[in-house]
Amino acid sequence: MEERLPGLKQRLLMMPAPQLEISATDLRQRIAQGRPIKYQTPEAVEHYISEHRLYGQRVEGKTAT
């Protein structure tokens, strides 16, 4: 990476953070059960799923028609 972007290493700050194991299957099940997926996906993805009524139920927990 340093070859392509010289000086990058000096400008980056690596911060420790917990890694979350998030399964697409688990997300689909949560949505189908009317459970929230907030903080598990980007907000834009959550809105897209809700707007298009994917996975059998809206993210807010309202059944798709």
Radius of gyration: 18 Å
Distance between the termini: 49 Å
State the share of residues found in helices, binned by percent.
25-40%
What's the number of extended β-strand segments?
0
Global morphology: elongated
- What characterizes the major β-sheet? none
Q: Unreliable segments (pLDDT under 50, ≥5 consecutive)?
A: 61-65
SS class: mainly alpha
User: Strand fraction band?
Assistant: under 5%
Count of alpha/pi helices = 3
- Could you tell me the mean pLDDT? 83
Give an overview in words.
The chain is mainly alpha-helical and 65 residues long. It has a domain at 21-65. It is 34% helix and 0% strand. It has helices at residues 8-11, 24-32, 43-51. It is elongated and about 50 Å long. The model is unreliable at 61-65 (pLDDT under 50).
Short recap of the structure:
With 65 residues, this protein is an all-alpha fold. It is built from 3 helices and no strands.
Protein traits:
65 residues; mainly alpha; disordered C terminus
